Each structure stands twice: as structure tokens, then as C-alpha cells.
Amino acid sequence: MMASIGEFDPLNTRVPATKIEVTVSCRSLLDVDTFSKSDPGMYELLFGRTEVIDNTLNPDFVRKFVLDFFFEEKQNLRFDDFLGQTFCTLGEIIGSTGGHLERTLSGIPGKKCGVIIFTAEELSNCRDIATMQLCANKLDKKDFFGKSDPFLVFYRSNEDGTFTICHKTEVIKNTLNPVWQPFTIPVRALCNGDYDRTVKIDVYDWDRDGSHDFIGEFTTSYRELSRGQNQFNVYEVRHIRTARCKKQHVTPILVLFLTQLNFTVAIDFTASNGNPSQPTSLHYMSPYQMNAYAMALKAVGEIIQDYDSDKLFPAYGFGAKLPPDGKVSHAFPLSGDADNPNCVGIEGVLEAYFQSLRTVQLYGPTNFAPVINQVANCAAEITDGSQYFVLLMITDGVISDMVQTKEAVVNAASLPVSIIIVGVGPAEFDAMEELDGDDVRVSSRGRLAERDIVQFVPFRDYIDRSGNQVLSMARLAKDVLAEIPEQLLSFMKSRGIEPRPAISSSPLPEVHRHI
């Protein structure tokens, strides 16, 4: 199976935020071999390839993909071989529950090609390596006409109770007392730098047809394996297994926060945008290209949505007169349902935005505080670090309620909230810079904001001169989202919130074992 990544860096200025290790498994692959099972192999076109595993429809690939992760960019991945193909983004894998993402393979019409499973984990800074050798005594005899052909499979444990494969030994033919060759493995691969993390080792009897017989298993840790250079560790589960481990130097683990992002959109419906039916309007709905509001929404939203598991996004408008009585609202749901402001996916937000342009009257003034306070009220209910709220506000003009907005920002700065403001059109946005606290922290009534939570940018600074909308959107998203991870981390630190373990509702499927 071949895989490729599309990483887009229009400004050529990326600094890797972190490295992510992606493990790949498949289940129920399509069997295309006549006299045996398929031999799946997944190949990475640009940065590596997995091994080919003979005679199995449920492969767990040992070889990993290590990728630089950029939160602010959409990193597209494609995986394919002669058995099937699938697409996803790196953000979708990282943002999925428990770091596990399942996708259906497609490629042969009318055939079920199987399921591909991705597991992502951020790599620690540990650079240690371990050299070890294992041997076993009196293993079970599994072959009818001879002894067993044993090999070992190493797995590291995950927070959700699943295990990720990290090493396989060679097969030792026709013996119940195998001595495997010494091998060297990065400690990062074995336990990601956590010496007390459970390591599970399975013992199998190799069979040519791929239906390897399960002999037994035992658990240990790197700390136990590295007790001493000349000492033996003995583990007994079903049989006695002894292991030698040569100890290398030690470094601490890097811990992570696992947080669900909640994305909310607020769009300016004031009259200064112009009549939506006219081409001069910033809200003009051209059949040939997106307007600036739609571009900003799509650019930011398509990246954020990978980290929002339910893909339900509250979307509001402000500064419009609503039917039937013409009352002005500064936080009306684009869905038209006051009890349910959620839209399904970014496409759902766009549809609701276009529909609202047909039903409301653009008016004014440009008030930010009501929407900010609404999101802040939601964030105030969940401050344990499990949820973080990102509000995208798109506007064409100067804020009318600056005093109230500054107070709303100062209040929200103590909550798990970040605010992105994108200015569209030719207006001067000098007053907006007051909210972006990069240089001077926002204050209200003598109170300083606890954190810098506002990022303001004028969209015109990112417009590609050749008219390439894709390039313009990528530039915008890269800049406005770059501060979100640090803002999230600053909230966690300000509240003394410790990293939370991932919780998975769907553990990795297991292959049937012969015991």
C-alpha cells in the first residue's frame, strides 16, 4: 500500500511544533491471492514505507511514519496499494478519540477492501537506545511434525488500555529453547521515554500461511529490563523466559495535554458590507468564487474541525435586523433555531451563512461583546482542561462597543478561550490592534487580561496577487492558528492543570489468536 503526504508551506517559514509517530494497522483486508492470503504492504511515497507482511488479512505494521506536525496547517495524507485506498489529514488522526482513527479502504467497485487503523502519539525528546537479547526455555510444542518456530512481538501500552506494536524479532526455526539475536531499539519506540510504561511481549509459533500460533505473553517495563548490564530478568507466564538488557543513559518523558477543541463562528451582518446582491458587496455570493467571509471561514474552519470530534459548530451573526419584526440582534444563530445554533461541519456553516444573507437585513452597529460573552459563558462551565473554545469573528469595520468588548475579553482571558478576529475589506482596523495583546495586554476598568487570547489579522495582507484563493486561505490559516497551541498551554499552566489521559470508546480490534 502506498501513502503520500501533502504539506503546504506557501511562505516557506514553518517551524515544526512537534513530531508525531503514526502507526498503521489493517483489519479484514480483501483476499486477492488464490492459494494463500494477501501480502499487504503500505509504502510512503515521500518519507518512508512500511514493510510487507506475508499471508495476513489483519496486518500490524511495525515500521512507523514520523511526521512534523503543524497545528495551523491542513496536512493531507493518502494511503493506497493494490488492495485499496483512503484519504485523511494528520489533524484528523491526532484529533480523533484516543488518537485512533479508522477509515474504510476503497478501490475495487463492489468489494469490501477492509479497514485501515491509524494510531498517533507525540514523540518525546528521549534519544536513548537499548540493546537487548532474549532467550526462552521449554516453550510449547506447536508443530505436529517438529518443534515450534518461535518469534517475539513487542508492544507498548497506551493510556486507553490498547497496545501499539513496536518490534518483531526474527524467527528461530525448530526449537523450544530459542536464543534470539541481540537487537537495538530506540527507547522512544519501546516506551516513548517513560521507563515505567507497560511493555507487553507476545510469543508466537511461526506458520508459513500466516496463521501464527499464540504461545503466550508476559509484561514488563523498560525499567525492569534495564536493571543491570550483566543481570538476568526472568519472566514466567506460561513458560520461563529470560531476558538480558544492556542499559543506556536516561532522560525524562515529555507529557502532553489532550484537549477537545470547540469551534464557534461569528459573522458581521452590518450594512457597511454592502448589498449582498451587488458584486461590490463583501457578502456577494458569486457563482464563480467565494467571497472574503467564506474564504476566511473555510480556511480556518477546515483545520480546526479536525480537533472537534462531533463536527457541530455554533454559528452566529451580529448587526442584522431579523424577521419578522426587524429587531436588531448581535448574536443570532445562522441556523435560524434559537435552541440549536449548531451547524454540521464547515459546509453546514457556509450553507447557513448564505441562507441568512437571503433572510436578514444588514444593519448595525458592529458589537462584539454579546458573542464573546456567549462563548465565554459556555467555557465557564468546563474549566478542567478537557475542553477549549476557539471563537472566529469575521468583520468589515471598526467595533462600535469597544469598551464592552475589552471587558468581555478581560473576563474571557481567565477561561479556556481563544478569539481570532479576521478583518475583511478595505477599512482601517487600527483600533482592532488594541485587542491583540501581543505588545500591550488588554485592560478594562483597571484590570489586565490574565492571558493574551486575541489574534487579529486583516485578510487583505494574505491575498495572493495572482488571485489564487487556495494560497490566500493557506496563508491566512497558517498565521491566525499559529498562536492557538501556546494560548491553550498558557491556560493550562495558569490553572495548574495536569495532562489528562486519552479515553477511547473503540479499542483497536484484535486478531484472533490460537491458544
Automatic annotation (TrEMBL):
Keywords: Calcium, Metal-binding, Repeat. GO terms for biological process: cellular response to calcium ion. CDD domains: C2A_Copine, C2B_Copine, vWA_copine_like. Coiled coil: none annotated. GO terms for cellular component: plasma membrane. InterPro entries: C2_dom, C2_domain_sf, C2B_Copine, Copine, Copine_C, VWF_A, vWFA_dom_sf. Gene3D superfamilies: C2 domain. One of its GO terms (molecular function) is calcium-dependent phospholipid binding. Transmembrane segments: none annotated. SUPFAM superfamilies: C2 domain (Calcium/lipid-binding domain, CaLB) (SSF49562), vWA-like (SSF53300). Residues 112-235 form the C2 domain. Belongs to the copine family. PANTHER family: COPINE, COPINE-9. This is Copine family member 9. The lineage of its organism: Eukaryota, Metazoa, Chordata, Craniata, Vertebrata.
